[in-house]
Amino acid sequence: MSNKAKSVIVQLLAERGYDVSGYSDLKVLKSNAGYYVGTQFTGGGIPYPQPGSRDTGYMTEEEAYDLLGKINDLALMGIDYSQYLRSHP
After folding, report:
1. Which bin fits 28, alpha (ψ -120 to 50), beta or left (φ > 0)?
2. Best CA proximity match to 54, nearest among 72, 76, 77, 33
3. How far is Cα 9 from Cα 82, in angstroms, rounded to an integer?
4. 39-48 contacts at long range (C-beta below 8 A, 24 or more positions apart)
5. 9 and 86 in contact (C-beta within 8 Å)?
6. What does the pLDDT average to over 1-17?
7. What is the distance between the alpha carbons of residues 68 and 73, in angstroms, rounded to a whole number?
8. What is the pLDDT of residue 3?
9. pLDDT tens, position by position, 20-57
10. What is the pTM of this model?
11. Minimal CB count within 10 Å: which of 6, 44, 49, 68?
């Protein structure tokens, strides 16, 4: 079992029977709208990573790294971190 935090959205997909093996652990990503915590998708023969899920709102780069650190710390301690993540696409 990984000590890294997982996407709540990806976990919900897995519970519904979808193959989620191509999704990364949570990481800081950037779009034109700003930085966010989310996943990348590399499954299905895609030659390069695609956006998988956006699990937070947009924020500054520093805020995104701080939040990801907090989420990963909580995951390592076995504490529920879902309150910091979106649960809908």
Report:
1. beta
2. 33
3. 10
4. 39/7, 39/10, 43/19, 46/22
5. yes
6. 79
7. 8
8. 53
9. 888 999 999 999 999 999 999 988 788 888 999 999 99
10. 0.85
11. 44
